[in-house]
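User: Hey, quick favor. My workstation is busy. Could you predict this chain's structure for me?
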Amino acid sequence: HKVVVVVGTRVDALPVATYREDMLGEGNPRTVLIGQTQAVLRERGFEVVGSRISDAPSPSTGEVVALIRANKAEAAVIVVLNWVDVSSIRAMGRAEVFLEAGLVSPNGDLLWRKDSRTVSSISMYQSQTDYSSYLRKAVIDAVKEVP
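Assistant: No problem, here it is.
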C-alpha cells in the first residue's frame, strides 16, 4: 500500500531532560512522531510516499486529501499527539501518552480511527538519556494497529 503520513500535535514541546536534547530539537514531538510513524509503517510493508507535519493541532481533511493526491497515494495515516503526562517520570519512571491514529481515503473519508493511551515505564537512566523513548513506544503501539 502506498500511503502518506500526516502528523499533528496539541503538545508543542516535550519537557526535556537535558541540554543536549534542547540543542538537537529532540524536545519537539513532531520530529519523533513523523520519524517513528514512517519507520513502523515501512516495517509493516507500507510504502511511504510522502509526509507532512501539520501546522494545526489536528490536520484538516483538505490538507490530508491534497497530500494523498499530490503523492498518488492510496490513503493517509494520521497521527495526532493529544496529551503527554510526565508528572511522575522522575519519581516513578512513568509516562502516559494519549495519541489518536486514523486512516483517511483519497476522497477524505475516515476509514479507521483509534484513540490510544500508552503508559510507559522508563528506567531512570533512560529518562535522562533517551527522553522521547516513551513517545516512540506510544507511536509504535498506535501505528501497528493501522489496518
